[in-house]
Write a structure and sequence with these properties.
binds inosinic acid; 5 helices; globular; 202 residues; seven-stranded mixed sheet; Maf protein; 7 strands
Length: 202
């Protein structure tokens, strides 16, 4: 059994879909009565992903996949980065974060609106030891207005330049192929499958 160490339900839904081919039962924190609240105070996606994986694995006594992700905007020096979820403040909503991003990039031409989504994944065993990790990125551009309603977070503003469409317009099938999370999951796959095949991860 593998538990997804995230409380973000939309993220968990994407992860469940991405891991569908692995012969292991995937659970989310919602399936446990007492997951711990992990403070995401790391300076990098890698640090936060490891914190989530290791803490939940030890606490719940099972394999855990920690995932930390966010948006890095070139013109903002990589912000909001690890602060993506809390960009507009401690009680941030997706709408408020998107509004602040639009405000900070107001008037900037398309050529200066480059950005990347980054996702880091860490797999920890029941003792809390890190057994595998991977990172995926997805480059795009921040649109001057919201387009589409699919996905979550910054998806209506994140344009895949080659497709002339935002993740908000493209929907879950495209996101499961092209996103930072999809790329990180694919990179983790060989190690995950090897652990399942060797019956270490059951
Ligand atoms: P985390 O739960 O601390 O990893 O926060 C991730 C935050 O980054 C989310 O709340 C979103 O604001 C942003 N983010 C990460 N991945 C995505 C994505 O796939 N689409 C849109 N926003 C994302």
């Amino acid at each position: 059994m593998l538990v997804l160490a995230t409380t973000n339900r939309k993220k968990a839904k994407e992860l469940v879909r991405l891991l569908a081919g692995v012969r292991v039962e995937v659970r989310t924190l919602a399936d446990f009565p007492d997951p711990i609240d992990v403070v995401e105070d790391g300076e990098t996606f890698a640090e936060n992903a490891a914190k989530k994986a290791v803490a939940q694995a030890r606490h719940l006594g099972c394999w855990a996949l920690g995932e930390d992700s966010g948006l890095t905007v070139d013109a903002l020096g990589g912000a909001p980065g690890v602060y993506s979820a809390r960009f507009s403040g401690p009680k941030a909503t997706d709408a408020a974060n998107n509004e602040l991003l639009l405000h900070q990039l107001a008037g900037m031409p398309a050529a200066q609106r480059g950005a990347a989504y980054v996702c880091h994944m860490v797999l920890a065993d029941p003792s809390g030891k890190v057994r595998a990790e991977s990172q995926g990125t997805c480059r795009g551009r921040i649109l001057p207005e919201l387009r589409g309603t699919a996905g979550f977070g910054y998806d209506p503003l994140f344009e895949l330049v080659e497709y002339h469409r935002s993740f908000g317009q493209m929907g879950p099938v495209a996101k499961a192929i092209l996103s930072h999370r999809a790329r990180a999951a694919r990179r983790l796959m060989p190690e995950l499958v090897a652990l399942v095949d060797s019956h270490e991860l059951t």
